[in-house]
């Protein structure tokens, strides 16, 4: 502000002399300058609270050029590739049965499968919680159509498809005991907002399980942006107020990490 006044005083003097502007006109101009400066600061403050992300023009072609905590966010796997999620080789590579057996679940648990895709995990979990319910959340309606078709075809009652947005899971507040994310978190375009939405949706003490390909192992043949290191996951979860409980390494290629709402 001082800088502006010093800069503009000679200009104002000239204006007054040349156009015989009164003292009151000068005061009006100064008031305008003050308000412009302060509204600028307000805008700057809002920008800084949203400033979780950094963008870069030159970036990994598998990413979206947007970085969160120094990690480039991967592009979303389009619904056109959904058959990949149901590939036969997945049983051996990702051992879904072992994954669901390690989930901390009660028979009446309320579960959310975030980034559910075709519901590959949601349907497997549904049979473990006969008195509970699983919300299958995704941002692609085409994925949820498959979930609904399979639900009807296999007469599964306790799976509910939920269309989320990039920033909101659209889940009821304090309703979820356990949230699962398999091969999904790394492609959330707004991880900060989604984890905040999840925080609201979880019951107190609710748990979060992340399954991500091990970035620490270069021999795992998955694109780098589709892998995550334990260190990175822990850092991002801590920011979102989730306390790391343990990491289980029973899967051939992925970390199985458990967090709890702080
Ligand atoms: C690689 S697929 C994994 C699907 C499933 N978890 C599985 O293991 O079969 C990732 C899914 O996350 C979904 N996704 C991406 N961003 C999302 C977001 N912000 N909220 C919810 N789902 C999202 C994508 O649409 C996609 O279906």
SSE blueprint:
Blueprint: H1 2-19, H2 23-49, E1 53-55, E2 63-68, E3 71-74, H3 90-94, H4 96-101, E4 110-114, H5 120-126, E5 133-138, H6 141-153, E6 159-163, E7 176-182, H7 191-201, E8 202-214, E9 227-228, H8 230-239, E10 242-248, E11 254-261
Parallel strand pairs: 4-5, 4-7, 5-6, 7-8, 8-9
Antiparallel strand pairs: 1-2, 2-3, 8-11, 10-11
The structure holds S-adenosylmethionine (SAM).
Quick overview:
The protein is of the alpha/beta class. The protein contains eight helices and eleven strands.
Tell me what the structure shows.
- Mean pLDDT is 86; it is low at 1-49.
- 37% of the residues lie in helices and 25% in strands.
- The relative contact order is 0.12.
- It is globular.
- The longest helix has 27 residues, at 23-49.
- It has helices spanning 2-19, 23-49, 90-94, 96-101, 120-126, 141-153, 191-201, 230-239; strands spanning 53-55, 63-68, 71-74, 110-114, 133-138, 159-163, 176-182, 202-214, 227-228, 242-248, 254-261.
- Helix 1 runs antiparallel to helix 2.
- It binds S-adenosylmethionine.
- The site of S-adenosylmethionine (SAM) has 22 residues, from helix 5 and strand 5.
